[in-house]
Amino acid sequence: xxxxxxxxxxxxxxxxxxxxxxxxxxxxxxxxxxxxxxxxxxxxxxxxxxxxxxxxxxxxxxxxxxxxxxxxxxxxxxxxxxxxxxxxxxxxxxxxxxxxxxxxxxxxxxxxxxxxxxxxxxxxxxxxxxxxxxxxx
Length: 137
Fold this sequence. Notes:
This protein has helices spanning about 5-15, 25-30, 35-50, 75-80, 105-120, 125-135; strands spanning about 50-55, 60-65. Helices cover about 55% and strands about 5% of the residues. By secondary structure, it is mainly alpha-helical. Helix 1 (about 5-15) crosses helix 3, helix 1 (about 5-15) crosses helix 6 (about 125-135) and helix 2 packs across helix 3 (about 35-50). Strands 1-2 form a two-stranded antiparallel sheet.
């Protein structure tokens, strides 16, 4: 459903939400299975977009820049320009809109609205809590 970049960004942010101190990118890569070079690029974008902060030196690493309860999955999709939320025709019609929609347009518009609401209602914190709960079970 999500692009690989968005999925990796979510996994990285969830991992950070489970920690109380800065974490090295290498550690996140090893634990999550995200390739280190790709994760470093994603973290660079997460830093530029104010999702994480970066600290150099001893005790350094990356940490969440804001409360994980305030980071929605929709916000991450928008920040990384995920194709799933882009306003384009499902079948690639260049002039597809509410006025001149293709046969799929009415259905897909309604579904996309529902999905956007769902993604906006779910946060990094909710995913982290669900992971902790599943680890205890």
